[in-house]
Amino acid sequence: MCLYKDLLSKSFVLLCSFVLVVSCTDDADPIMLEAGGDTRLVIDARFGEDDFELNRPFQTTSGDQALNYEFSRLRYWVGNVILVNENGEEFSVPDSYYLMEETGEIPVQEGTYGKVYSANKREEIALSGIPAGEYKGVKFSIGVEPKYNDNLTLQIGELTPMNGMAKDSWMWFTSYIFTSAAGRMTLASDSEQSQNFFLETGSNEMYVQKSIEFDQPIRISSATSSVIELNLDVQQVVSLENAWDSAVIGATDVGKMEKLRDNYVNAISFSSASFASK
User: Fold this and answer.
1) CA dihedral over 255, 265, 143, 234, signed as positive or negative
2) Nearest-angstrom CA–CA distance, 256 and 241
3) Closest CA to 80 of 158, 154, 133, 136
4) Domain residue spans in the chain?
5) Measured between alpha carbons, how far is 132 from 79 in angstroms, rounded to an integer?
6) What is the DSSP string of 139-150?
7) pTM for this predicted structure
């Protein structure tokens, strides 16, 4: 009887050990929760079907006139970036003000301080600290919101009056320059007929938001790398009625600024959005 109990006890211990080993080896790998991640927002400047470049002639038409444009700068503010997830919930990227540009050297404050803003090309923004999730769209402003536009001493993100996007002619209106395109334009039919052009927008009334919806959601997290690619068609930006007679647009030309503002909004289009595991 004692021998039977002893064998039974040992059998029970072996059975428990076997169950323990099996349960440990059969456990699924622990679930790793993904942390927030980052993404890249690219806005590629083009002129129609061509890559945009400074100091290169681009031809377009305005009414019955063919015009050649050579740009010395293209600059605009992108701000208040918002990512929209699959449920329609929005995440606002903190301090998100970015100066997008392709420009030669610019005298700061029209040379008042003897400083020069260096030539630069910037078409890409790095967005970080984004909660992990599936995202279906992006929103952003073109320009500067009234809180910061009404007081140029307040700074957030890349906002500063010392990068050539504020000058005396705009200080009277207490406004940043929201968009700026400049260079030289020539009549295609008569190369002797040429003039400088300066196309600028600013003031709170010109502040506007652009919304982009992706063709399919992308996943943003610590385990993925992703990119959102948009296009800016500069040919559409300078698509103005009587463009030759509208070579200078600024703070006092509200109607023409509205047209120029709308041109920027319509000129930005979706190209692609993709992601991959790291």
Assistant:
1) negative
2) 9
3) 158
4) 38-277
5) 22
6) EEEES--HHHHS
7) 0.86
